[in-house]
């Protein structure tokens, strides 16, 4: 074990910090730096994301992998992936977010990052996906109240709170709908409030905008979409 600032990491992570690019170079197709670009391409082909909209993160232990902002989803490469330590103090006017690896290209991390952090801190999520799915937007227009509810066949397999046991045919899934804001980052507080108020919800819908879903892994987050 060794320390990086106030954070403690295994020696393997510390050696990767000496060569940060090694955190995103792997022959393993399931490595987060390979999986994130593949999933983004799939989302684009499915019409779930257009242009640079939406976002995705994968957390493995104390490492968080996040896609960049401002890159078309079908063109994201492993070299564009940011790697951050988890946990870490919330950024403030006096302290920036801590990164272990940034892309050489001048890119910014996903603007969803503060919202992704909600799912790590409040649900111990291993992955969170945000899309501007037209189906999600339509649901927020048809259900004009504070929640979207659904029961029976289509909820089988959806996990309570995103990470608990799977719902059954007889359960009812209630997903909070929060109101949109001009900037993604400004959704952080209302998303956290909705997650606290609806602890069984496996996601949060954003009216006229899209959805955030999370799970213990990227494959299970994806299932919820
Ligand atoms: Zn968005």
UniProtKB/TrEMBL annotation:
Please give the name of this protein: Methylthioribulose-1-phosphate dehydratase
Recorded hits in HAMAP family, A to Z, give: Salvage_MtnB_euk
Q: Is-annotated flag, keyword Zinc?
A: yes
Q: Which reaction does it catalyse?
A: 5-(methylsulfanyl)-D-ribulose 1-phosphate = 5-methylsulfanyl-2,3-dioxopentyl phosphate + H2O
Q: Which GO terms describe its molecular function?
A: methylthioribulose 1-phosphate dehydratase activity; zinc ion binding
What Gene3D superfamilies does the record tag this protein with? Class II aldolase/adducin N-terminal domain
- The broad enzyme category this protein falls into is lyase
Which organism does this sequence originate in? Mycena chlorophos (Agaric fungus)
Q: What is the lineage of its organism?
A: Eukaryota, Fungi, Dikarya, Basidiomycota, Agaricomycotina
Where is this chain primarily localised? cytoplasm
Instruction: Identify which cofactors the protein needs according to its UniProt entry.
Output: Zn(2+)
Give me the comment on cofactor binding: Binds 1 zinc ion per subunit.
Keyword Amino-acid biosynthesis, does the record have it?
A: yes
């Amino acid at each position: 074990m060794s320390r990086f600032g106030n954070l403690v990491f295994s020696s393997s992570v510390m050696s990767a910090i000496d060569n940060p690019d090694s955190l995103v170079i792997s022959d393993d197709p399931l490595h987060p730096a390979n999986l994130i670009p593949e999933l983004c391409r799939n989302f684009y082909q499915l019409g779930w994301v257009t242009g640079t909209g939406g976002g995705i993160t994968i957390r493995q232990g104390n490492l968080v992998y996040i896609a960049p902002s401002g890159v078309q989803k079908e063109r994201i490469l492993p070299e564009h992936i940011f790697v951050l330590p988890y946990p870490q103090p919330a950024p403030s006017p006096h302290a920036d977010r801590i990164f272990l690896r940034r892309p050489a290209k001048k890119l910014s991390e996903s603007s969803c990052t503060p919202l992704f952090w909600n799912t790590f801190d409040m649900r111990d999520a291993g992955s969170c996906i945000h899309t501007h799915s037209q189906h999600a937007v339509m649901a927020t227009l048809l259900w004009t109240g504070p929640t979207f509810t659904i029961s029976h066949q289509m909820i089988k397999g959806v996990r309570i709170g995103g990470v608990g046991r799977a719902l059954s045919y007889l359960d009812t899934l209630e997903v909070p709908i929060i109101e949109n804001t001009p900037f993604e980052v400004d959704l952080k507080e209302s998303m956290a409030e909705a997650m606290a108020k609806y602890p069984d919800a496996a996601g949060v819908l954003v009216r006229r905008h899209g959805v955030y879903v999370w799970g213990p892994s990227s494959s299970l987050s994806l299932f919820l979409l």
